[in-house]
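Self-study notes.
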Amino acid sequence: MRTPINTELQHLAPGYDPAKAHDYYEKHKHLKGRQKGSAESPLATIGKRAKRLAATSPKAKQKIALQNSIQNLEAKLGKLEQLIREKEAILKRDQAQAKVKVRKPKDKPQTAADKAKATRENKKYRDKHKQQLKTKAKQATGKSGGGSGGGSSKSSAKSQKPSDMSIANLKALATKVKGQIAVAKQKLAAL
C-alpha cells in the first residue's frame, strides 16, 4: 500500500510508517463541530479585536473609550428626545383643554357699580387691618433684601433633573449632547 511518494520520502524519515501514523491520528483526533448560534456578527468580532488591541496600544484604548462615550451619549440623547416628546404631548393636551373651557361668570368684566363696591370694601379692609398689612410688608421686604439671591437661579437650573426642566431647556440640552456626539465622532475618525 505504499505509494511512490511515500517511498520517495522514506529516505527522509527512516522508520516512518504512514499507515501507523494515520491510525495514531484517528485515535487521538478531537474534532468539534460548529455549534448553532456560535457565528458572531462582524461588529462583535471587531469589538473583540479592539479589546485584544486595547491591551497593547494606548491608541486602541482611546478608541474604545470614545466608542463607549458615543454609545452613552446616544442613549442619553434618546432619553432626552423621548422626554421632550412626552412634555410636548402634555402641553398640547393642556392647550386643547384650555380652549374647551367655558368662561366662568367671575371672568366677565365688572361694571362700574361693581368696581365702586369693590373699592369701598378694599378701603374698609385696609383701614381695619392697617397694622397687619404693615408687618406683612416688612416681612416680605426683609426676606428679599440683600442682593445675594440673584445668582441662585442659574445654579438651580443646572442641578435640576431633566424631567423637571422646561421643553426649551430640554431642547437646548439635547442640542448640547448632539454636539458632544459629533465631537466624539470626529475624534474617533481622527484616530
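Second protein, same conventions, sequence then structure:
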Amino acid sequence: MKSIRHILAPVAFLIFAVPATAEKLSLNVLSGYLNGLGTARSAFTQINEDGSRSTGQLLIRRPGGIRFEYSPPETSLVMAGGGQVAIFDSKSNQPPERFPLSKTPLNLILARNVDLGASNMVVGHASDETTTTVTDQDPKNPEYGSIQLVFTNNPTELRQWIVTDGTGQQTTVVLGDLKKGVNLQGTLFSIQREMRIRGF
C-alpha cells in the first residue's frame, strides 16, 4: 500500500517560455487565482522521495475535490472528496486507506476560500526570473506538513507543488497544460461511489 506521503507530498527543473523580467506575484493575486480555479484537468508527473516516478491525469474540482488517475503499469487511484482522502491500491483486496483532508497540506489549496495572506500561513514567498514560489502550512497544525506551490508569473499558472509531510518526506507533482473550467461530475470525487464500483 502506498504511504500518504508518496501521494500527497522534488523536481528542481522546469523550463518556461516567459519573460526574464517577471516580478514576484503577490499573495492576493495567487489567492485569487486559486479561488478562481473551480475545475481543472492536467497531465501530471509525480516524483517520490526515493526518485521513482509515475504519470497520469489529475482532476480538480474545488472546493475539496481532487483525483489522481495513474497511467499503466501504475494502477492506484488517489482521490479527495467529502472531506477525506482515499488511496485505492489495486494490488490489495482491502478497502482504501482513508485520511481527513484537513490533516493534509492539500487542504490549503482545496479549501473553499483560499487566503494565503492569513496569519502565519505563508512561511516562504520567493521569486526567480520566471516563477513565484509560496510555501504554506496550517498555522494551527504545522505538524501536518507543508505545501510549496510554484506558479509561472506571466501568465499566472500553477505549475507544480511539493508536499512535505510531517516526517519530512517530499513528493512533487509537476503539471502539464492545466485546462481550466472543464466539466467534471461530482461523482468523480465520491469515495463511497468508488468503493462500490470496486466492490467494497
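Instructor comment on the second fold: The chain has one domain: 5-10+19-195.
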